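User: I'm putting together a small comparison set for a docking exercise, and I want a reference complex before I start. The sequence is below, and the ligand is pyridoxal-5'-phosphate. Could you produce the 3D structure with the ligand included, as structure tokens?
Assistant: Of course. I'll restate your input first, then give the structure tokens for the complex.
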Amino acid sequence: MRTNTPFEEALQEELAELEQKSLHRTLRIVESAQGPEINLRHKTHLNFSSNDYLGLANHPRLIEAAQNALKYYGTGSGAARLICGNLDVHSALDSALAQFKDTEAALTFSTGYAAAVGTIPAVVGRGDTVILDKLAHASLIDGARLSGARLRAFPHNNIAYLKKVLRQEKNSGRILIVTESVFSMDGDIGKLEDIVEVKEKLGGWLMVDEAHATGMYGRNRRGMVEQLGLSKKVEIQMGTLSKALGSSGGYIAGCKTLIDILINKARSFIYSTATSPTVAAASLAAVLLVSGAEGEERRSALWDNIHYLAERLPARWSRSDPLQSPIFPLMIGDEAEALQIAQQLEKKGFLVPAIRYPTVAHQQARLRLTLSSKHEKNQIDELLKHLTNS
Ligand SMILES: *Cc1c(COP(=O)(O)O)cnc(C)c1O
């Protein structure tokens, strides 16, 4: 047997430490398409962990669009969009998104992560300030760090604290406030109306990440910004095509000038090959589908499931307003305990993974339960039976 190199030993020390703190992660292999039922280790599991909220990840219309694009364009887009990779399907997707979001323009990136780390540094830099909600997604934190701007944070949804920070940072360059509309690990809603009010009074621009809201809120399912009537007051609307839209890719929607700046300055856009045309075509089909009658049907089926579960969750996991989103954090606290409960559930055929540090704070471990429009009531009942006993 070969002995470990010093390189391996150094890394193994770190892994051992993660293991000892119940923070080590491994990949599980899914042997089927996405859906309420997935196969793990040749066994069917009920899946309560996906962000495919509207069940579009293997919808026939998205598959057909991808297949047609595959036949016409092949697999690769050849280059970055500013070279020769900007196929008509990419521009059509940008336009469809602008229309869907009712903004002047939109721009798609290869992922939501790329949209965040490209956009923040394109609008703020050294001498400026980014103010983030404490629970903002890692991609937003990383984008803020990359920008070189001063980083400030406010406790989750604490508007009084945000005001204080805004007053302190006045006269110090540009100010960008960054938050989410639906928080990814807590499933609660950002106080967007209050934030808009304070930034209109005290100055600052607002970027809202709608990763978990696009397709699910608002009259036209544009997101929470639409639902709250704030479209004209949010400078930068971000989202992803990889959650409710069932495809892959991120987007920014806003004024033409913003999109022009991004095309010229966002490094994750400029220096990265355009998304595969098959993916762009599936995304385009998803945007059109969500915009239309089937989008509404699926949205309402999803909310029906959310209501059903919210009314039946064990009391210890009920939250002040359980009807906020399809994301239910079942708080456990201790990492080892969360991991153990998740493993027990998995053995019984339910996938509700433990979410641990650093995705959430230390001792804030939880099971993150998510619903889709495709879950049947009896599948939710099955889960509830086992949750009550665990
Ligand atoms: C998932 C997610 C992203 C990243 O989007 P991807 O398309 O998966 O890269 C960004 N922000 C939030 C809040 C998310 O949950």
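The mean pLDDT is 96. The pocket of pyridoxal-5'-phosphate is lined by residues 111-113, 116, 137, 139, 180, 184, 209, 211-212, 240, 242, 250 (CB under 6 Å).
User: Thanks, that's exactly what I needed.
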